[in-house]
Amino acid sequence: MSQTVLEFKDASIFQGESLVLSNVNVEINKGDFVYLIGKTGSGKSSFMKTLYADIPLKKGDGSIVDFNLKTLKEKDIPFLRRKLGVVFQDFKLLTDRTVNANLEFVLKATGWKDKNSMATRIEEVLSKVGMKTTGFKFPHELSGGEQQRIAIARALLNNPELILADEPTGNLDPQTSVEVMEVLQDINKNGNTILMATHDYALLLKYPSKTLKCDENQVFEVVQRKS
After folding, report:
1. Which GO terms describe its molecular function (predicted)?
2. What is the pLDDT at residue 223?
3. Is position 198 within any domain?
């Protein structure tokens, strides 16, 4: 029996008072790799923000990693976010501290106490993204692709049940995008569930997978033709 990680039933997503997406019915299961595509302004960001409770779900039903988005209380949002790994387009690394210190900051913020355990976990996630030797560097000493790998490592720290990657290759050149995509593919093969918003259709062709499209206030699955 496949385990549902994310499900929306007849949900409507609002940005303030404006309806962005209506009648959303989506299901993502453990181990899936799913793309979310759509033009700028089609609702991709609002959809993603609803998932990590930046936007409240006002209408319909939605659950993500065993949290009910409709009844989610403010005090539970940090616990929801601990079960999610979020990767942003602009990396969002703290520029005044090293890679290791960036990762340690997240672990401390999410309740880790033991120095040795933290060091071990940081080494593990950096190994997973091929950045094991960069812990002592500052973000500005890394290329964009390397910074995004660190951002992915950061998203993995707490063994998230779902990784939300919001345009993770948006600021990268095509070659670097492929390298970052390979990292995400490897992570997915290790059992991590990934939902990736993107406008990079070249990646969809190179790594075909289940695809959801935001268009005209709807979200629907796109059936990809096998080449």
Report:
1. ATP binding; ATP hydrolysis activity; transmembrane transporter activity
2. 78
3. yes
Helix (H), strand (E), coil (C) string for the chain: CCCEEEEEEEEEEEECCEEEEEEEEEEEECCCEEEEECCCCCCHHHHHHHHCCCCCCCEEEEEECCEECCCCCHHHHHHHHHCEEEECCCCCCCCCCCHHHHHHHHHHHCCCCCHHHHHHHHHHHHHHCCCHHHCCCCHHHCCHHHHHHHHHHHHHCCCCCEEEEECCCCCCCHHHHHHHHHHHHHHHHCCCCEEEECCCHHHHHHCCCEEEEEECCEEEEECCCCC
Number of domains comprising the chain: 1
Kindly indicate the confidence band of residue 224, based on its pLDDT and cuts at 50, 70 and 90: low
Q: Is residue 48 part of a domain?
A: yes
Identify which of 93, 73, 211, 67 has the alpha carbon closest to the alpha carbon of residue 155: 93
State which residues form the domain around 212.
Answer: 4-93+160-222
Do residues 34 and 190 make contact, with C-beta atoms less than 8 angstroms apart?
A: no
206 lies in a domain? yes
CATH code: domain of residue 67: 3.40.50.300
Q: Would you say residue 119 lies in a domain?
A: no
Q: Please answer whether residues 164 and 52 qualify as being in contact, where contact means their C-beta atoms are separated by less than 8 angstroms.
A: yes
Compute CA 170 distance to the chain's CA centroid, rounded to the nearest angstrom.
Answer: 13
